[in-house]
Each structure stands twice: as C-alpha cells, then as structure tokens.
Design goal:
Helices cover 68% and strands 0% of the residues. With 241 residues, it is an all-alpha fold. The chain is elongated.
Length: 241
C-alpha cells in the first residue's frame, strides 16, 4: 500500500495562512475601492475578526500595507522570471518581447495590485527603509536587467554611450549602477531605465483608462511597440548608441 503524502504544516498553520491571505485580499480590495482609505477596523469587520484578533496577524496598518506591496512586487517579478525562463531558447529580442507581454498581462489581470506599487501612494503610508518592499522592488529590477543584459559581453556593455555630444555619466545613474548592479556601466543602466519606461508607460496608460479607443487591440498595439523597443535595444548592442 502506498503512503499518502503528509500535508505541509499543521491544521492550525494552514488556517493561519488562509486567514492571512483573506486579510490581504480584503485589504487590497478596500485600497482599490476607497482610494487608499483602508483601515484595520474595516478589514477586520469584513473578514469576521475583532481588531484585537487582527493584530495577531498584522500589528499595524503599515505592516499590512508593507506586506501587500512586497507581495505585489514579488508576484510581478515571478511572472517576469517565469516568462524569461520559458523563452530561454528564443533570440534575445524575441525573448524581451515575450517578457514585456508577461509584464503587461500581469498588470492587466491584477490591476489593483499593480496600482498599489505604481499608482498614487497610499495616504499616510511610508515604506520602511531597506525593508521588505525595497528588497522586492530590487528583485524585479534585477530580473529585468538579467532579461535585457544577461547575455551581453563586457565589451558590449562598455560600448553603450549617451546620445549627443556629452558622453559623461549621469551622476545619479553612476550611483544607482553601483548599488543596483555593481560593475554595470551607468550608460547601460540608463538604457535599461529607458526600456523599462517603454515597457511600463504604455501599461500605465492602459491601466488608468487613457487608451480606451484601442479596445481589444490594446495587446496587439503593445506587442508592436515592444518589437520596436527590442529592435532599438539590439541596435544599441550592435552600434553602441
């Protein structure tokens, strides 16, 4: 007789995990519905807990929001990483397009969570310095850097230069490059930032309702835009600008 595999965690642990997920789900819905006016009292009431009981899961409103923000960053990073891993055999430009499409798909399917991390800041909330939200955001950034530059040689990275006559590094980019991706030339980080702006910008316009006239063609338009963006990155790789 084959053995039945044991479930992970005790019944109490599973119930606690389920309650935490329900609290988070209610909280994100309230944040989306009330323009950031989520309260622990309101969440507790909808979940069926007392405020005192809710404190056993999240000691403060800030702790709950921090968990939601970190979760959203990590979930988006998971979607991007999964797309990158599944398309490893594709040429770099095509892989970049597929990853961008995964970025958009996650944002459209999880609008409230996407706007929690990239929309209007939650009133009264300030993320803890070097806390869970910072680590999660950096993870997403590192994932995108790996997708764009993972197979570039050191010479190709060093060959990127700023357009125009002044090729001196932008000081803020030089500082960020050392913090975010040590050894990366500032101009490469600038190119990555420009690309993220293109990946992200169209998504934000769509999510916030500024492109209703595209209708069902929004994804096709985004696809075309990402093909152009990937081609621009390839030209920089080949010619340095």
């Amino acid at each position: 007789m084959s053995e039945v595999p044991a479930r992970r965690g005790s019944l109490r642990e599973r119930k606690r995990a389920a309650t935490i997920e329900e609290i988070k789900s209610v909280a994100i819905d309230q944040l989306a519905a009330d323009s950031g006016q989520m309260t622990l009292r309101g969440v507790a009431r909808e979940v069926g807990l007392t405020v005192q009981s809710l404190y056993n899961y999240f000691p403060s409103r800030e702790d709950l929001i921090t968990a939601l923000v970190a979760d959203a960053h990590n979930a988006l990073a998971d979607a991007v990483q999964t797309a990158a891993r599944e398309q490893q055999e594709l040429p770099a430009s095509e892989r970049l397009v597929r990853v961008a499409l995964a970025y958009r798909r996650w944002a459209v399917e999880h609008r409230a969570r996407f706007l929690l991390i990239y929309g209007t800041p939650v009133p009264g909330y300030r993320a803890p310095e070097e806390g869970p939200t910072t680590g999660a955001a950096r993870r997403l950034g590192a994932t995108l850097v790996e997708v764009v530059f993972g197979d570039w040689s050191a010479a190709e990275l060093a060959g990127i230069h700023r357009p125009g006559e002044d090729d001196r590094p932008v000081p803020a980019l030089a500082t960020a490059a050392e913090l975010f991706s040590p050894g990366m030339p500032p101009a490469a980080l600038g190119l990555g930032l420009d690309l993220w702006g293109r990946i992200h910008g169209l998504v934000m316009l769509e999510i916030l309702g500024h492109l209703p006239w595209l209708g069902s063609d929004a994804e096709a338009n985004y696809h075309d835009a990402m093909i152009r963006a990937a081609a621009d990155v390839q030209r920089v790789r080949e010619h340095g600008a």
